[in-house]
TrEMBL record, chain A:
A cellular component term, taken from the record's GO annotations: nuclear speck
Transmembrane segments: none
InterPro entries associated with the record: FIBP
Lineage, opening ranks: Eukaryota, Metazoa, Chordata, Craniata, Vertebrata
Identification of the protein by name: FGF1 intracellular binding protein
From TrEMBL, chain B:
Ranges of compositional bias, category Gly residues: 304-313
Annotated GO biological process: intracellular protein transmembrane transport; positive regulation of D-glucose transmembrane transport; positive regulation of protein targeting to membrane; positive regulation of vesicle fusion; protein localization to plasma membrane
InterPro entries registered for this protein in UniProt: C2_dom, C2_domain_sf, C2CD5, C2CD5_C, C2CD5_YbjQ-like_dom, C2CD5_YbjQ-rel_dom
This protein's name: C2 calcium dependent domain containing 5
Record region (Disordered): 250-315, 624-654
Composition-biased stretches (Polar residues): 259-274
Gene behind this protein: C2CD5
Annotated GO MF terms: calcium ion binding; calcium-dependent phospholipid binding
Record organism: Propithecus coquereli
Residue intervals of the C2CD5 C-terminal domain: 862-955
Length: 364, 985
């Protein structure tokens, strides 16, 4: 006696969260059955392995049929074939678009192309995430990227609207898309200590302040939406950043800046002497990063530069985080007192974001 | 009566990409009510045509250089628009369906019909007759008169009798077939409607339409139903069961108690066995009944009853009987397809009557004269009628017909429950007034229907009669088998359960007549064995009555399958069933003896366990009372009734005799051994689960609103090596048991819940394939209430168990798991999420989650039951009767047979829901999947499936919403076109 056909179709589509997770994790039916058996479900329910096998198959088939719809979540809402309560629809979508930290760190900032897809094998072996799951996550990134690439308006809103993701997940995707678009290097060894959350935090700040979309002043004005492009950095802004060079190129200005900072921080900083000794190096580093951003290649290396030029020197001197914060605050604020410096707004736009990023990046 | 049909195509969405180069589709639409050009005279169509033919909307992709490609079609049955009370507009998104690709996008359509009322109404069309699949009086109606049986049958040639060798494209032949069947069923419905109008009725209740795919010999569409005159209950706010007024008629019961002295039938030995098998030795294969008394006199029994009639009740009784007789004599077949009745309608139940006949199919030469098929069914019905007579009954209720076809052999089956009915509903009775004056307050309710309608001195079969355990006045049989639902007023002890008898018998492959003869020879043995199995399993459960009995015999190339499903209950009015005793044949052998006693012990244990499980603890009073009848009820009976003294004494003996009765199973061969084993292999459902195949589960009434209707299909391939009867039986048994186990597992998040209306269908699509299709609904019930009752019960039984029996070691364990408030299944989180799900859109709006809540798809519930728990049906929108064919030539790519069928069934559900939603409804009740014919050819990577479903589209309102905002619910269901005013009317 062999089973030829075995199906179960409910008027309301049954979704088993545990099986969904196994499916998303890319396990084959037999692996999933084995894992479920290990979870002790047989003892709990008194079911047999055959029952479990048939149940798992059923769910897998359902998920397989749903996958097509999950690629365009609004379709899932409007389709008529599967009657799924809204809460379950939300769960299906959210879980489908969820990704593994380990995986996203591998592909963050990489071009979402066929070439990268070929490397998924290696990523799979490296991270221990099944190839199937890697593919799903990669395809999700790519799909979201493709859909919102040419769109105007807020990146997060666009993602939310077209993929019905929760706020948290939509922000993460915005970061992924932003990184993929600007190809920021994140894979270097010295960047390994950074988590996806660190990068996502920086991405959000950069989207808010450094992109074309950030220029649109009044969000109520419908026209401003037209220019709101969150994906690309504001080229004009990057060009203008060259002007900041004067801060380190002009020796007087640099000395004045240093004295202002030192005066303000004297006695407040545990690492004052180290700061004082390093001020010029640090300032040069930060300003040079800004000045270099006109070149695409240097944009890509932004995080490498930041870590090299600022994070690592501070860390080697064992600056506590609070001192870093005090220093950066004072460092940005003091520029306002430099009479000879005319690019205050530009400086604020640059340093405001950079300060946030650096504080986030500064950890072990 | 011509009319104007207005169709508006509003929008399309999710269309497939038809042009690969541009990733676009140039979609356009063709609308046609009649695609046949010869009859396409004018834009105006007769409503006769409207009734026959569905509206057909074809969506195509425009191609400049080649022929336009079909994307798919939408068939819309516009019947509901033709009767005044139902929907006035059909509006909504319909899936675009293609028989090769399945659903491909959706189209938004608005349909309206303007009928010109000035012309002669109801001439050829039967506009105005309402159809209901529901086998009871629909909830918001009142039955004025129940006229009786209507049937019709239409035959035609099957456009594609062999799907594999086809001449035209598969799509064309599938569509031709779909169209033909919907045309035929439209015609059938219209013809039945005409018959109803002739009978002066206005509705058909319990409408059941079936297709017989006879292959080369053609296609038969047949339907049966019960014609009624229904009255809409005026105020929808009063939530009363239909026919609340005649509840007093219950009291008339005793007057019909007189035995029928002139039923001189020497029938079979138990109610169920009252069947005939059609042995067909003659070439014509005409039916030949095995029971000798089929020709028994059909003379009215009017005068006869008066002999034993009492002084007081006599005249009325005679009058009543006369009324009933005359009312029923008029009818050719006093059959009713209903399974639940207005209170007082059902007076007595005799037992199951059934008839089968084996026929050889021949080509239907003239489709306009389906006489042969008509004659076949007429024969069977006549037989059923005479069986009912033999049981002293003048009517058959819960009547149904079915066929099983394999190649050119066809088994026709009909079954029902012989019953005595109250004539009040059958005619515009003039006696109503005087009958209603009769007040019989001394009569206990809830047992009347159990009382035997036949003469106890001249019983149609040997049965143990006892005095009714409820009223102690009338005689009752020791077991009762019926095809109807449990009457609402019946007193039941404990809970019910699903009981199935399963059987396979090998048959030699043969041709034509030899084959028919072989089948005819096997049938009686199968019926007998199915019956024995049912009886054994019933006893094993400690129960004494079966409701909703449905025996299906399926014929295949080399085997016959029998599957009987019923819901067992313990009726308080019937005696406690005796145990099962095993008797060995060779008493000398010591080890054998030991084996027997071991088995006996196992059986006894099982019975005791089942009694606990189903909470069967009948009051223990009977012991003393039976010995010496308590004077009180007796006196009363003497005072008020005119029962003859002599018969009383006879029954006293019967009582004592019946009590000791134990069912003896003789193990004399391996077969019997198998039987006993199979008895014990049935595993009870896990705790928290109950199952039945009737509308409601006896003993559970605290339903909550979560329902989940489902269809499950399994096909197994038998290995041809081990084809013995035993192996077959085991395979079949395992198949059914595993299927049930799977269901319990899948639905574990709904615990505590009950599977209701569990409907098994068996078919044998090929030599070594067995297909089982199950449709049922899982309904949750209130855990707390249920728990309380079980707890007290468990306590009681614990005491009993401890005092009674120390041997039953597994008892405490069982009971502990029962009484624990938490179930051994995964935590209830899943439950809570799902609980809110079906209708709880409101709940999710409040969630902070993504904008998923603005889903535009309204929830449509589907259920095989006639009601929705926790809700009130406010309006019936019309019958849903859909037939689909799906075919694939890329079976592997679609996920194999399972993937293919899974998708198809999901699509069928979607199309049913879409139609209901477009009618302005939010549920389908009395949903049934009548056919699911699946054929595969894996070598060619092909498969084909035909599905036929039906049900009643309704609007329901949650009872909780009813108080706050009436009629808000259905209107809110994204159908602005469904005006609120209509909902309330």
């Amino acid at each position: 006696m062999t089973s030829e056909l075995d199906i179960f179709v409910g008027n309301t589509t049954l979704i088993d969260e545990d099986v969904y997770r196994l499916w998303l994790d890319g396990y084959s039916v037999s692996d999933a059955v084995a894992l479920r058996v290990r979870s002790g479900i047989l003892e709990q329910t008194g079911a047999t392995a055959a029952v479990l096998q048939s149940d798992t198959m059923d769910h897998y088939r359902t998920f397989h049929m749903l996958e097509r719809l999950l690629h365009a979540p609004p379709k899932l809402l409007h389709q008529l074939i599967f009657q799924i309560p809204p809460s379950r629809q939300a769960l299906l979508i959210e879980r489908y678009y969820a990704f593994d930290e380990a995986f996203v760190r591998e592909v963050l900032g990489k071009k979402l192309s066929k070439g990268t897809k070929k490397d998924l094998d290696d990523i799979s072996t490296k991270t221990g995430i099944t190839l199937k799951s890697c593919r799903r996550q990669f395809d999700n990134f790519k799909r979201v990227f493709k859909v919102v690439e040419e769109m105007r308006g807020s990146l997060v809103d666009n993602i939310q609207q077209h993929f019905l993701l929760s706020d948290r997940l939509a922000r993460d995707y915005a970061a992924i898309v932003f990184f993929a678009n600007n190809r920021f290097e994140t894979g270097k060894k010295k960047l390994q200590y950074l988590s996806f959350g660190d990068f996502a935090f920086c991405a959000e700040l950069m989207i808010q302040n450094w992109t074309l979309g950030a220029v649109g002043e009044a969000p109520t004005d419908p026209d401003s939406q037209m220019d709101d492009m969150d994906m690309d950095l504001d080229k004009e802004f990057l060009q203008d950043l060259k002007e900041l060079k004067v801060l380190v190129a002009d020796k007087d200005l640099l000395d004045l800046h240093k004295s202002l900072v030192c005066t303000a921080l004297r006695g407040k900083l545990g690492v004052f002497s180290e700061m004082e000794a390093n001020f010029k190096n640090l300032s040069r580093g930060l300003v040079n990063v800004a000045a270099k951003l006109t070149h695409n290649k240097d944009v890509r290396d932004l995080f490498v530069d930041l870590v090299e030029k600022f994070v690592e020197p501070c860390r080697s001197d064992h600056w506590p985080l609070n001192d870093v914060r005090l220093f950066l605050n004072q460092y940005s604020a003091s520029v306002h007192s430099l009479d000879g410096f005319r690019h205050q707004a530009l400086w604020d736009r640059y340093m405001g974001t950079l300060r946030g990023c650096l504080l986030r990046l500064y950890h072990d | 009566m011509p009319g104007k049909l207005k169709v508006k195509i509003v929008a399309g969405r999710h269309l497939p990409v038809m042009d690969r180069a541009s990733d676009l589709t140039d979609a356009f639409v063709e609308v046609g009510a009649r695609s046949c050009p010869s009859k396409h005279r004018e834009r105006q169509v007769d409503d006769e045509d409207l009734q026959d033919e569905p509206l057909q909307i074809t969506v195509l992709d425009h191609d400049t250089y080649s022929a336009n490609d079909a994307i798919g079609k939408v068939y819309i049955d516009i019947d509901p628009l033709l009767y005044s009370e139902a929907a006035t507009v059909i509006s909504g998104w319909f899936p675009i369906y293609d028989t090769i690709h399945g659903i491909r996008g959706e189209i938004n359509v608005v349909v309206k019909v303007d009928l010109f009322n000035d012309l002669n109404r109801f001439r050829q069309s039967s506009c105005g007759v309402k159809f209901f699949c529901t086998t009871s009086i629909p909830k918001c109606y009142r039955a004025v008169i129940i006229h009786g049986f209507v049937e019709e049958l239409v035959v035609n040639e099957d456009p594609e009798y062999q799907w594999i060798d086809r001449i035209r494209t598969p799509r064309a032949s599938n569509e031709a077939r779909q169209r033909l069947i919907s045309l035929m069923s439209g015609e059938l419905q219209r013809k039945i409607g005409l018959k109803v109008l002739e009978m002066r009725g206005n509705a058909v209740v319990g409408y059941l339409q079936c297709f017989d795919l006879e292959g080369e010999s053609g296609l038969v569409v047949r339907a049966i139903g019960t014609a009624c005159t229904l009255d809409k209950l005026s105020s929808p706010a009063t939530f009363l069961p239909a026919c609340s007024s005649p509840s007093k008629d219950m009291k008339e019961i005793p007057f019909n108690e007189d035995p029928n002295p002139n039923t001189h039938s020497s029938g079979p030995s138990t109610p169920l066995k009252n069947q005939t098998y059609s042995f067909s030795p003659s070439k014509s294969y005409s039916r030949q009944s095995s029971s000798s008394d089929t020709d028994l006199s059909l003379t009215p029994k009017t005068g006869m009853g008066s002999g034993s009639a009492g002084k007081e009740g006599g005249p009325f009784k005679a009058l009543l009987r006369q009324q009933t007789q005359s009312a029923l004599e008029q009818r050719e077949f006093p059959f009713f397809t209903l399974t639940a009745f207005p209170p007082g309608f059902l007076v007595h139940v005799g037992g199951v009557v059934s008839a089968r006949s084996v026929k050889l199919l021949d080509r239907i030469h003239n489709p306009d004269e389906p006489e042969t098929r008509d004659a076949w069914w007429a024969e069977i019905r006549q037989e059923i009628k005479s069986h009912a007579k033999a049981l002293g009954c003048h009517a058959v209720v819960g009547y149904s017909e079915s066929t099983s076809i394999c190649e050119e052999v066809c088994i026709l089956s009909a079954s029902g429950t012989a019953a005595v009915l109250n004539p009040r509903f059958l005619q515009d009775g003039t006696v109503e007034g005087c009958l209603e004056q009769r007040l019989e307050e001394n009569l206990p309710t809830g047992c009347g229907f159990c009382h035997i309608p036949y003469d106890e001195l001249n019983m149609p079969f040997p049965a143990h009669l006892t005095y009714c355990y409820n009223c102690r006045k009338q005689k009752v049989p020791d077991v009762l088998f019926t095809t109807i639902d449990l009457p609402t007023d019946a007193t039941v002890i404990g809970k019910g359960c699903l009981i199935q008898a399963r059987l396979c018998r090998l048959k030699k492959k043969a041709q034509a007549e030899a084959n028919a003869t072989a089948i005819s020879n096997l049938l009686p043995f199968m019926e007998y064995e199915v019956h024995t199995q049912l009886m054994n399993k019933l006893k094993l459960k400690g129960m004494n009555a079966l409701f909703g009995l449905r025996i299906q015999i399926t014929v295949g190339e080399n085997m016959l399958m029998g599957l009987a499903s019923a819901t067992g209950v313990y009726l308080a009015a019937l005696p406690t069933p005796g145990g099962i005793q095993i008797a060995g044949k060779t008493p000398n052998d010591g080890s054998y003896e030991q084996h027997i006693s071991h088995m006996q012990k196992k059986i006894n244990d099982t019975i005791a366990k089942n009694k606990e499980l189903y909470e069967i603890n009948p009051p223990e009073i009977s012991e003393e009372i039976i010995g010496s009848p308590i004077p009180e009820p007796r006196q009363r009976s003497r005072l008020l009734r005119s029962q003859s003294e002599s018969s009383d004494e006879v029954t006293e003996l019967d009582l004592s005799h019946g009590k000791k009765d134990a069912f003896v199973l003789e193990i004399d061969d391996t077969d019997a051994m198998e039987d006993v084993h199979s008895l014990l292999t049935d595993v009870p459902p896990p705790s928290g689960f109950y199952s039945c195949n009737t509308e409601i589960m006896p003993g559970i009434n605290n339903w909550t609103s979560e329902i989940q209707m489902f269809t499950s299909v399994r096909v197994i391939r038998l290995s041809s090596l081990n084809l013995t009867n035993q192996a077959l039986n085991k395979n079949f048994n395992d198949l059914c048991e595993n299927l049930l186990k799977s269901l319990y597992f899948k639905l574990r998040s709904m615990i505590p819940c009950c599977l209701c209306h569990v409907n098994f269908t068996v078919s044998l699509p090929e030599d070594e394939l067995i297909q089982v299709t199950v449709t049922a609904v899982a309904i949750t019930f209130d855990k707390n209430q249920a728990l309380q009752t079980t707890k007290t019960h468990v306590e009681k039984s614990l005491q009993r168990a401890s005092t009674d029996n120390e041997e039953l070691l597994q008892f405490p364990l069982e009971l502990c798991s029962d009484s624990l408030p938490s179930h051994p299944f995964p935590p209830a989180k899943a439950v809570t999420v799902e609980k809110a799900s079906p209708m709880g859109e409101g709940n999710f709006r409040n969630r902070s989650a993504p904008p998923c809540a603005n889903s535009t798809v309204g929830v449509v519930k589907m259920t095989p039951l006639s009601f929705i728990p926790g809700a009130k049906i406010t309006k019936y929108l019309g019958i849903i009767n859909m037939f689909f064919i799906r075919e694939t030539t890329s079976l592997r790519e679609e996920g194999g047979v399972s993937g293919f069928l899974h998708a198809f069934i999901a699509e069928v559900f979607a199309m049913v829901r879409a139609h209901v939603a477009a009618l302005g409804g939010n549920a389908v009740v009395s949903y049934i999947m009548k056919q699911c014919v699946f054929m595969e050819n894996p070598n060619k990577n092909q498969a084909q499936c035909l599905i036929n479903v039906s049900g009643d589209a309704v609007v329901f309102v949650r009872e909780s919403d009813l108080e706050v905002v009436p009629t808000q619910q259905p209107a809110a269901n994204c159908h602005p076109s469904c005006t609120e005013g209509e909902v309330t009317t």
